[in-house]
Structures are given as structure tokens and as C-alpha cells.
Amino acid sequence: MFNQLATWLVVDVLNMELTSRLGGALHFFIYDTTKILFLLAVMIFAISFIRSFFPPEKVKEWLEGRRKGVASVMAAFLGVLSPFCSCSTVPLFIGFVEAGIPLGITFTFLISSPIVNEISLVMLFSIFGWKVALIYVLAGITLAIVAGYIIGKLKMEKHVESYVYEIAAGNEEVNMQGRDNRTFAEKIKAVFSRKELKERTIFAARNVVETIQKMWLYLLIGIGIGAFIHEYAPQDLLVKYAGEGNFFAVPIATIIGVPLYSNAIGALPIVEALLNKGVGPGTALAFMMAITALSLPEIILLRKVIKPKLIAVFVGVVTSGIILIGYGFNAIL
């Protein structure tokens, strides 16, 4: 359907040849834009409806007091349900630290949320199919859990700004006063009442509109860059420096991606174009992971709550994990 629409617009409306570079680039742009927007709207609605059952306050309540292993897995999967870029996740990260949730578990959420969410899942599926999408999701969740575990084991709580723990101590009494004393049956009945379901549906629909409003520009820029690479970038040059034959392609792509700032919307169309030009799958996906998981704006925001040494450990651990995952992807795909 989307391919036919793109072909009709390029050939019949714009009277261009698909075999020309400009015609091919426009076809790539229109096809990817319409396909991704449709899939995003459907998946964001579904995930937002599910996510309406998990407000940040409830997430913090569930994570508090859990065993670290269980809480880490929960934090990683809850990050999947949070469709945020790396910068948007920072306020929740700060809230978790203030709530007294262990540092390693908090970092697990911070890492998993931008790397693995419904947006990246939809786009990976639409471009690469379920196999790559599933492997990517599992790799991202594993990276978040392992990196969080390492950071937790390093006992770096002293590198969190002291005022955060003062806020956490002040919040404890407030949280105790605000406990929900309803029975389990009463809570279930309230959740599935007609009024609640209507409110959750409205919330999901509103989130579709708000999310696409925030991300449409990234989408168009990313697909535009991808379309340009797809038709105009010299294939021999890309394969020489980022192809599967270059052993250092993965770390180079990761290091280049770290200081950049984007999300899955902007990154994946570029990844698709790079793959079409012969760049290794692990190299391209490592580049995407680095862009989505780490960014200069995110680091600046984190500096408000944690000290430089902890930021350096976070960036180093995640970058190393992404490089290993990139090599793994190149080996199995």
C-alpha cells in the first residue's frame, strides 16, 4: 500500500522516473514517511494505553523495596514502555534517585528507555523484520541490565549530588501519607470501569498526537538524510570505512554517534540507508544505539544530579556495551 502510494506520487503526480537519483530519493522519502507514521500511530496508541496503568509514581512504588535482581529486570522492561529520548528520560531518572531507588536500577531504566521502546521496535520491524527487531530489543534490555549492575556494584552513591538525598528523605514522609488504602478488588474494579477505560483511551489518543508532534521533524530530517545517502552517497567509500571488512568500523561508528543527539525516529532511516549501501548491520545498529542512548544534552542534564566521575563511568560502560553488541550483530546477521 505505502509502496504503491509512493510510486503513484513520484511517477504519476510528479512525473519523475524511479530510476533517476532524485526520483529514487523521493520514493524512499515518501514510502518511509507514510509507512512509519502509520505504524507509529498504531503502536504508540497501544503502548500508551498499556502505559496508562504505569504512572511514574506507581513505577517508583513497585521498584522500591524489591530485590535488586528483580527490580533491575522490572526497570529494564518499564523502560521499554517509556517512549522517551535520552533527554526526556533524565527527569524520571532524577525522580527515581530522589525516591531512594538504588543507583544501578535507576541507570538500568535510564539506558533501556531511549534504546528500546515501541518507536524503535516499530521502525526496526518495518525496516528489518521481526528477527532483527527481536534481537535488538533483547540486546538493548541486556545492555541496560548489565550496565546498571556494573554501575551498582561500583558503589558510586557518593558521586550523586548531596541535595538529592535530602529531597529523598523529605519525600519519604509524604509518600507514607499518600498511600492508597483500597482493597485489591476495589482497585481492579476501578481500573476496568467504563469511565477509567474512556480516560485511558483519551490518554492514548492524546499521546499519539503529542508524540508525533514532538517527533515529526526528527522523522522528516532522518528520512531525508537516509534518502540522500540511499541515492547519492558513494557506496565504495562507505563500504571501505564502515563495511564489514573494516574491523574498527563498529567502535568508530559508536564513537561518532555518542556526541550526536537524536532518537529512533531520526536515526533508523539513516541506518536503513547505510545498510543499503553495504555498511555492516552491527556497525549501523551500534551507531543508532550510541545516538539514542547517549547524547551531549543528556550528559548536561545529568550533571545537575550526578558528578563527572559517575557520568564518565556511565558513558564508558554503555559505550563499551554498544561496541560489543555491534560486533555481535555483525557476527550473527
Q: What is this entry, summarized?
A:
This protein has 333 residues and is an all-alpha fold. The chain has helices at residues 2-13, 21-51, 56-63, 68-80, 86-98, 103-115, 118-128, 130-153, 162-177, 184-191, 194-232, 235-242, 249-257, 264-276, 281-293, 296-302, 308-332. The chain has one domain.
Characterise this structure.
- The protein is mostly helical and 333 residues long.
- It contains 17 helices and no strands.
- The protein has helices at residues 2-13, 21-51, 56-63, 68-80, 86-98, 103-115, 118-128, 130-153, 162-177, 184-191, 194-232, 235-242, 249-257, 264-276, 281-293, 296-302, 308-332.
- α1 (2-13) packs antiparallel against α2, α2 packs antiparallel against α7 (118-128) and α5 packs antiparallel against α6 (103-115).
- The protein is globular, with a radius of gyration of 21 Å.
- The model is unreliable at 169-179 (pLDDT under 50).
- Keywords: Cell membrane, Membrane, Transmembrane, Transmembrane helix.
- It is found in: Cell membrane.
Shape: globular
Order of helices and strands: HHHHHHHHHHHHHHHHH
Question: Would you report the number of β strands?
Answer: 0
N- to C-terminal distance: 28 Å
The class by helix and strand makeup works out as: mainly alpha
What portion of residues is helical?
over 70%
* Count of the domains: 1
Measured by DSSP, the beta-strand proportion falls in under 5%
Mean pLDDT: 75
Described by its quaternary structure, the protein is single chain
